[in-house]
Amino acid sequence: MLEKVKKGLLIAARESWLFLKSTIFLKNLGIFLVLAFLGIFITKIWLSYYTNHGQALKVPDFIQMDFDEAEKLANDKSFELVVSDSVFLLNQAPHRILVQDPPADFKVKENRKIYVTVTKNIPDLVKVPNLLAGNDDYKQYSRKLERIGVSSKVVDRKYSIKLQRNTILEIRYDGENITDKVGGGFQVPMGSTLEFVVTDRGGGMVEVPNLICKSYDAAKFLIKNYGLKVGNVTVGSNVKDPEQAYVSKQNPSYRPGAKMDIGATIDVEIVGTLPKNCTGGDDYSNDSQ
Fold it and tell me: Is the full-model pTM beyond 0.70?
């Protein structure tokens, strides 16, 4: 049995060797090798063309360029610019490129898309920060505004004995008092300017002026010169024209040496005729009051 197997294997091996040496096999093998070589060669050329092998290009630096100019340059270099985002920046011209991806000098294939972030000319809306129950310091609050791109300026000061200097009393925007709207998410365009009315302590005291027997017009002038303000005005009898009236009472009362805070108010009562004991009009000084 074993002898028969060996004999069969020898016959198969001899026949295989004769086939491999035959003209038909060698001819077919040659055709196969030629076709395989041509296939590999053609595939290599196609891949080289498809992937632009060896033709990597440097990405230009588009940062701070106007988008239209950058787009023209990109097209000349066989690239495509695509805007992926836009932001508003103060003191920055619109349509300027801020960020690009891939970055400058990065090597890529032609026809590659370059994604950019550009500036825009329409400002974003930002929420005005909340106030803290009437004791906000203007300088601290203005720094909050600066961080969100909003400017601020003081347009008026009002004297206050109780509040610290520069405490915010009012916020105005575009001529409107928005103090009560701030806590409700009020928004303004970035780059806007808010106007503020803040407190002032005056930094000292002044003597109480003697207004009795003065004309109302002269009394107001004197109050202003003392750094004070006219408070409540009570109109007495026979007053036809307040500018022609006279001061008959004042609060606080005049006393030699008495003082009051700068910026405080004086209440007065005016009458139509010169009060009794006033003989000299505006030149009269009633030290007995």
Answer: no
Evaluate the omega torsion of the peptide bond into residue 252 and state whether it is cis, within 30 degrees of 0: yes
What is the DSSP-derived secondary structure letter of residue 196?
Answer: E
Span 74-100, average pLDDT = 86
Place of tokens 């001061």: 247
Torsion over CA of 96, 99, 103 and 109, rounded to 10 degrees? -70
Question: Which of 96, 119, 142 is the C-terminal boundary of a domain?
Answer: 119
How many domains are there within the chain? 4
Same domain? 140 vs 177: yes
Determine if the peptide bond prior to 102 is cis (ω within 30°): yes
Q: Residue 288 falls within a domain, yes or no?
A: no
CA–CA gap between residue 217 and residue 262 (Å, rounded): 20
Which of 187, 53, 51, 211 has the alpha carbon at shortest distance from 130?
187
pLDDT in tens, 143-155: 999 999 999 999 9
Task: Calculate the CA 76 to chain-centre distance.
Answer: 36
Q: What is the CATH number of the domain that holds 109?
A: 3.30.10.20
The vertex-76 CA angle with 75 and 82, nearest 5°, equals 20
Using the 3D structure, point to which of 181, 200, 219 is the last residue of a domain.
200
Host domain of residue 168: 125-200
> What's the rounded Cα separation, in Å, for the pair 55 and 209?
91
Condensed to tens digits (0 to 9), the pLDDT of residues 95-118 reads: 899 898 888 888 888 788 889 999
Is the same domain home to 216 and 272? yes
> What CA–CA distance (Å, rounded) separates 210 from 233?
16
